[in-house]
Structure prediction request, 428 residues.
Amino acid sequence: MIADASPDADPSLRRRHRSTHLYLQVLVAIALGALLGALAPGWGEALKPLGDAFIKLVRMVIAPVIFLTLTTGIAGVAELRGLGRVAAKALAYFLFFSTLALLLGLVVGNVVRPGAGVGATPASLDAGAVQTYVQQAHETGVVPFLLAIIPDSLVGAFTGQNILPVLLIAGLFGVSLSLVGAPARPVTELLESLSLVVFRLVALVMRAAPLGAFGAIAFTVGKFGLGTLVHLGGLVACFYVTAALFVLVVLGAVARAAGFSILKLIRYLRTELLLVLGTSSSEAALPALIGKLEAAGCAKPVVGLVVPAGYSFNLDGTNIYMTLSVLFIAQATGTTLSWGQELALLGVAMLSSKGAAGVTGAGFITLAATLSVLPTVPLAGMALILGIDRFMSECRSLTNFIGNAVATIVVARWEGALDRERLAAALG
Prediction:
């Protein structure tokens, strides 16, 4: 007798069927949104609230997902020293590849020189257009960033947009559960049951993903025009190529060394990547990424720690964008930077990229924060890239998302907390 191969016959086939179905829905929604934005720009711009509403809907569940995943993961760790080891390895990985991304942007910017020949002068630029971002940059400095990690209350950690306070609360709560031991087991079981409910809620929210992607892409094309999706200019093209090289060459080599294919991982996460592309926000796919990585054989404690931390500390796409954009503005305004100033740019960018974590429009705000500390490059030069930042935001988000997926699998492998058979089955 031939076994029933329908999606209803096997839960894994059923999940794969739903994932493929959602993937196709998001793909069609993006195409329809682009078409509507091109044919009826006014209607496309009017659909911006649809994309914004979906992103807010996802952000609504991010804090509970992170708290429950990290807390139950830590509570299930027999050796707390093992947890510290995971955190140390993750931070070392983040630091190394964040620095590498900054260096790559710096090298490409100096070799390609995308801003050469623009001939802009600071006096001719509209500095007022970027004043809002400058103000936000001043509000997200290093000291406020450190203070923002500690919430005013336990509840307050879940009401803001910054996920770092949630990480702190979840970590402390999970460690406390682990230290209490058997008497705290009922609380742990309650949180594990609550996790099932919350992830079912995430599945319900994700059904609205095609609507969110449709509204977001319709707004983008309606506001900036379909032609800009093809002719984005030298800087955007340079950024996309550089980000692609980082993902395929650098992260591809890392993936190969860890025993998996970066292309197969991208295919496995194609639904989530389309969602990131449509909404220009990697946060929109964070809950789904956690579920996908656990299903691919990464241990729950590792996923619960590395993925949320990576969203604040492992921003490869943002780092490439930072150094490349600063050099573009410098070249476009005829500003010459010495090697010492470029090295200073690396240090400042490394700090400021962490300071703006969790802030809406973090990439552009981070750039403003960096230029505020480097007075040699005119801050008004940000007006040159304000109009195309939306397209660069999509590439930043995609690169950040893939970078965090790779980081989680690699750290899980280092820890011996990766089921390689499940990973091969998932990616295959």
Summary: The CA atoms of residues 38 and 226 lie 6 Å apart. The chain has one domain: 12-427.
